[in-house]
């Protein structure tokens, strides 16, 4: 299930995000959601690597 959220971002950064989303032919929402998903996957993989190293 998806839920709506409201965030405040720096105007200049959001313009850069909008431009990049357009270059990738994505909606702004899809672009930001993909960034967050990829970041969370990276965090999870890094934690798994650290656990294996211990």
Automatic annotation (TrEMBL):
<protein>
    <submittedName>
        <fullName>Uncharacterized protein</fullName>
    </submittedName>
</protein>
<dbReference type="InterPro" id="IPR010985">
    <property type="entry name" value="Ribbon_hlx_hlx"/>
</dbReference>
<dbReference type="GO" id="GO:0006355">
    <property type="term" value="P:regulation of DNA-templated transcription"/>
</dbReference>
<dbReference type="InterPro" id="IPR013321">
    <property type="entry name" value="Arc_rbn_hlx_hlx"/>
</dbReference>
């Amino acid at each position: 299930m998806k839920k709506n959220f409201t965030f405040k971002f720096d105007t200049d950064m959001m313009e850069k995000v909008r431009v990049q989303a357009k270059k990738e032919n994505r909606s702004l929402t899809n672009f930001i959601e993909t960034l967050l998903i990829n970041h969370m996957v990276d965090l999870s993989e890094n934690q798994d690597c650290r656990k294996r190293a211990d």
